[in-house]
Design brief:
about 350 residues; alpha+beta; ten-stranded mixed sheet; five-stranded antiparallel sheet; 8 helices; 19 strands; about 25% helix
């Protein structure tokens, strides 16, 4: 991207979406768009076209807020060889290597425009508790598209419902593990809580609920107790267990390990029995949690081909689910696929080996 600075979001591994950042004066108006407009009266770049320290601090505040609100890993790019990565743990890693695989958003796509109002230049970068004037907006609030760049609280509230309307999950020692108020989930790790997670996210991907509960010591008995709280929660737990049983029976035909600009990930091709209809083939990405729709193992579904009942259809299905851009740089090993298939379905493996040999001639 030629325009600097810009912010990069990572919805899934090795896939990035950028969002332009425009710095204007505090009194200027912006045209409607899908970028981030920062109202700030300072000087963004010096004579050598390097980002100024004052501007970097302003944009770092924007990057931190966007990482926390989106749940994604993000990167603020200032120049072709200068950027900051914002990690979920709150740390910032300065780098000379921006993400290299991204798509540019068009107006109205993916994100609405955000207007960021900042303090004046003298106050920017003061991170040592100096006196500043507070407005009526709570830290971290988003109001009509404006972001307050104040500090984000370490423990986030779960909502304003009465306690009687809140579902609480406690362990056998009476320790609070999680709360749910019909809209948000909050998970407790001792004295520390997570940021609220939308219930819709968990309904779509129960993996996130189970992962958090298991990380704080919840067992199957507690999950069963949670499923009794409501029909919807029972459906969420049941959906996870059904999907896990499905995946437990799959055959992993091929794995490719790689590294993106922000994390380690694994591409997989799997064969899964589909009742009386034979099999289907799936390609998935596994890696760090992405806050993105995923299966019970935390993997993102990339492609699927159904109605596989013989070697020829299996060969065609594997080719069909590996035609996207991700697989252009991956060397697919048919020998590995055949060997992984052989212990489970020797006849199918022999048929696939013959087809592969014929295609290579």
């Amino acid at each position: 991207m030629n325009q600097y600075p810009y912010l990069v979001y990572r919805p899934i591994a090795a896939f990035y979406v950028n969002r332009p950042v425009t710095i204007v004066g505090s009194q200027q108006l912006s045209e409607s768009g899908n970028g981030i407009v920062v109202r700030w009266d300072g000087k963004p770049y010096d004579e050598d076209h390097k980002i100024t320290p004052e501007c970097r601090e302003v944009l770092r505040a924007v990057g931190r807020q966007q990482q926390q609100s989106s749940g994604m890993r993000v990167c603020m790019v200032y120049a072709p060889d200068d950027c900051d990565y914002f990690e979920p743990d709150g740390s910032i890693e300065q780098s000379q290597v921006p993400p290299s695989s991204w798509i540019e958003t068009s107006e109205g796509d993916y994100f609405p425009e955000i207007i960021v109002d900042t303090v004046d230049e003298k106050e920017v970068g003061d991170t040592h508790g100096g006196d500043t004037e507070a407005d009526d907006t709570e830290a971290g609030d988003i109001d009509e598209g404006n972001i307050d760049l104040g500090p984000t609280p370490a423990v986030a509230p779960i909502g304003e419902k009465d306690a009687s309307e809140t579902v609480k999950l406690l362990n056998n020692k009476g320790t609070l593990l999680a709360e749910f108020d019909d809209m948000f989930w909050t998970f407790y790790h001792g004295d520390r809580s997570t940021y609220p997670v939308f219930h819709d996210t968990i309904v779509e991907s129960p993996y996130y609920l189970i992962r958090e509960l298991e990380s704080i010591g919840a067992d199957n008995e507690l999950l069963s107790e949670l499923s009794k709280k409501s029909k919807e929660l029972k459906g969420v737990i049941s959906s996870f267990r059904v999907d896990k049983r499905r995946l437990d029976k799959r055959i992993i035909l091929f794995e490719n390990e790689g590294t993106g600009a922000m994390d380690h990930f694994v591409d997989m091709i799997s064969l899964i029995r589909d009742g009386k209809n034979g099999f289907y083939v799936e390609t998935t990405i596994a890696g760090d949690p992405y806050d993105f729709p995923c299966n019970a193992f935390g993997e993102i579904l990339v492609g699927r081909c159904d109605n596989v009942s013989n070697a020829e259809q299996l060969f065609d299905a594997i080719n069909e689910v590996t035609v996207d851009d991700r697989w252009e740089s991956i060397e697919l090993s048919w020998d590995e696929i055949v060997e992984n298939l052989r212990p489970h379905f020797p006849r199918l493996a022999r048929g696939l080996a013959r087809i592969v040999k014929q295609e290579e001639r």
